[in-house]
Amino acid sequence: MWLSERFVPHGANLPAEPERVQLALYAATGLPIIGAVTQFATEAGLMSTDLALTLVAAGATTVLLFPMIACLIGSRSGSVRAP
User: Fold this and answer.
1) What's the rounded Cα separation, in Å, for the pair 23 and 28?
2) pLDDT for 9-24, tens place per residue?
3) Residue in 30, 27, 7 with CA at minimum distance from that of residue 70
4) Three-class SS of residue 28?
5) Dist. CA 36–CA 61, nearest whole Å
6) Residues 44-81, buried b or exposed e (16+ Cβ, 10 A)?
7) Residue 43: phi, psi to the nearest 5?
8) What angle do CA 4, 81, 74 make, to 5 degrees?
9) pLDDT in tens, 34-67
10) How confident is the model at residue 76 (pLDDT cuts 50, 70, 90)?
11) What is the pTM of this model?
12) Is the CB of residue 80 less than 8 Å from the CB of residue 71?
């Protein structure tokens, strides 16, 4: 999604840099893929449980912080948009 907005001229691109940053932050939350990969890696013995828990906690932090930061950026630029 971010690459499309950044590099593909389709007429509906986000015109302002703050809006592109907001889109990137909303799209960057990675908890679902982190959870799936760590589950498979721990079951296969490729990753310790402690490391998996740390990665999942970091992913959960992105789910909490990235949308909040995106909203702050939107409120400063005057264009608050819900995802």
Assistant:
1) 8
2) 665 667 777 887 888 8
3) 27
4) coil
5) 16
6) eeebeeeebeebbeebeebeeebbeebbebbeeeeeee
7) -65, -30
8) 90
9) 999 999 999 999 999 999 999 999 999 988 998 8
10) confident
11) 0.64
12) yes
Q: C-alpha 49: how far from its chain's center?
A: 24
Distance CA 22, CA 28 (A): 10
Contact predicate 29/66, CB 8 Å: yes
Cβ(37)–Cβ(51) below 8 Å: no
Tokens 């995802």, residue? 83
Task: Tell me the one-letter amino acid at 60.
Answer: A
Q: Are 14 and 5 in contact (CB under 8 A)?
A: yes
